[in-house]
Structures are given as C-alpha cells and as structure tokens.
C-alpha cells in the first residue's frame, strides 16, 4: 500500500496515520514530524524550516522535496508507505510522481480526510503535544488525566506555535490556496478517495480501511 493522506490542518491525518500505518504494516512518513524532529535536534534543516512553520507558510519546495526524496530511498519501504503532509502543492505532487515512476512504484491511492472549518479550529486550538514522546492529546476530545502532563511518559505538554489562533487562520488560507488544488490533480489521476473525517477516531479508521479495501 503506497498511500498519501491529504486534508486540511487538524483533519486528523497524524491521528489516523498511526492506525493505518499499523494496519498495513507500513512506515508513517510525516514531513511536519520530520521538520519538528530536526528543530528539536537543532539541525540546519530544522532551523531553516522553523520560520516558515511558525508563520503557517510552506517550507520551500527545494528543501522539502529533497528531504522526501532522501526518505524514500530508505530500505523500510518494501510493504509501501503512508505519506502525511506531502505533497502539499501541485509541484510537490509532480515531483512525487516522478520519484515513484523512477522506481516503478506508483501510488496506490490518495485518501482525503474531509472536515469542516469549525471542527478544524476546535481540534487545532485544543491540541497539546508531549514534549518528550510526541504523543498528541486534545484538551477536550482526548484528555490526559493531568492537563499539563502526558499520561504515557509524564512529559510536559505544550501547544504548537502554529496552533495559535492567528497562525491557524494563515494555515487554512495556505491549504485552500496551495494544497487544495492537489485534490483535483489526484482526482484526474484516478487515485482520489474521499471520506468524512468527522466522528470518533475509531469510526474514521474503519471508514478509511473500508474505502481502501478496493485498491489493494
Ligand atoms: P504538519 O505537521 O503536516 O501540519 P498539518 O498538515 O497542518 O497537520 P496537523 O499536524 O496540524 O494536523 P493533523 O491533520 O495531523 O491532525 P491531528 O491528527 O494532529 O505541518 C506543519 C508545518 O510543516 C506546515 O505548516 C509547513 O510549514 C511545514 N510542512 C509540512 N509538510 C510540508 C510540505 N510538504 N511542504 C512544505 N511545508 C511543509 O489532530 C488534530 C487534533 O484533533 C489533535 O489534538 C487530535 O487529538 C484531535 N483529533 C483527531 N481526530 C479527532 C476526531 N476524530 N475527533 C476529535 N478530535 C480529533
């Protein structure tokens, strides 16, 4: 299964990716997570990405494409992969198509998670992340016992810089302007599957697996 997960910020891509990656035994490749891990480690890549991420803008394609190209050369992809957060514009989608064509491993499907804007704002503004293990929580929908600590490792919970209200607005604009056009791109390629991403996390996972059962 070679899968791309697409949807607006806060649609639940990271949440669903964990379950889908485990179901299909494939690695979850999140460009946002790779940038954040680099930032935590203080690498040049992380420092370069930070300003763009904090403003809710896309990191330049030259940086992002090379990072993904490099990740797709690793030897853990024999069962496929689940890309989350890439591609994010049509130019990236074309680069991905070319990389996969070189390897003769085209995409199996592109799964779009559809959620309305009011729900997205609730999800993003209430998201908290563990500084230690990276587990994602929500102040209302997935509460830890202590609102300041991770239930799993007791790490400190923080709010992502880009989950502040003014940045959320910009991320949603960037999604509409730059990322939404890839939906039409993949529809034309015959790869697009859209599901509603409203409801419980487990219902959405089930919906996704049912929808994907026809592409394997
Ligand atoms: P990235 O990390 O990819 O951010 P995003 O796409 O904006 O997605 P999010 O991580 O915000 O949301 P999600 O859909 O994963 O939702 P989640 O599952 O956490 O990218 C960050 C930045 O990196 C970009 O802005 C850009 O600067 C840069 N970047 C990354 N990729 C790039 C690229 N290809 N090119 C250029 N730049 C790039 O869920 C959200 C919350 O909702 C959580 O609290 C969760 O608990 C809760 N939740 C989830 N599901 C449900 C549910 N069913 N019901 C109730 N609550 C739920």
What would you say this structure looks like, in words?
This protein has 216 residues and is of the alpha/beta class. It has one domain: Rossmann fold (3-Layer(aba) Sandwich), CATH 3.40.50.300. 48% of the residues lie in helices and 15% in strands. The protein is built from 9 helices and 8 strands. The chain has a 5-stranded parallel β-sheet with strand order 2-3-1-4-8, with helices on both faces. A 3-stranded antiparallel β-sheet has the order 6-5-7. A hairpin with a 5-residue loop joins strand 5 and strand 6 (136-138). Helix 1 (13-24) crosses helix 9 and helix 2 (31-40) packs across helix 3. The model has no long low-confidence stretch (mean pLDDT 96). Bound molecules: BIS(adenosine)-5'-pentaphosphate (AP5). BIS(adenosine)-5'-pentaphosphate (AP5) binds at residues 7, 9-15, 31-32, 35, 52-53, 56-59, 64, 85-86, 88, 92, 123, 127, 136, 138, 141-142, 162, 171, 201, 204.
């Amino acid at each position: 299964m070679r899968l791309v997960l697409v949807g607006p910020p806060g649609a639940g891509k990271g949440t669903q990716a964990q379950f889908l990656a485990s179901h299909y035994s494939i690695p979850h490749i999140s460009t946002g997570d790779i940038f954040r891990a680099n930032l935590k480690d203080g690498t040049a890549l992380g420092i370069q990405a930070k300003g763009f991420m904090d403003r809710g803008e896309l990191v330049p394609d030259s940086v992002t494409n090379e990072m993904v190209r490099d990740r797709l050369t690793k030897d853990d992809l024999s069962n496929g992969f689940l890309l989350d957060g890439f591609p994010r514009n049509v130019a990236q989608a074309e680069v991905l198509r070319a990389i996969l064509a070189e390897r003769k491993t085209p995409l199996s499907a592109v799964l779009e998670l559809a959620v309305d804007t009011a729900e997205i704002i609730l999800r993003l503004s209430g998201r908290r992340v563990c500084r230690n293990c990276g587990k994602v929580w929500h102040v209302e929908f997935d509460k830890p016992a202590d609102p300041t600590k991770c239930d799993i490792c007791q790490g400190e919970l923080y709010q992502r810089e880009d989950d502040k209200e003014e940045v959320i607005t910009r991320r949603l604009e960037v999604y509409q302007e730059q990322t939404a056009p890839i939906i039409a791109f993949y529809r034309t390629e015959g790869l697009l599957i859209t599901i509603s991403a409203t409801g419980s996390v487990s219902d959405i996972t089930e919906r996704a697996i049912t929808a994907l059962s026809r592409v394997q």
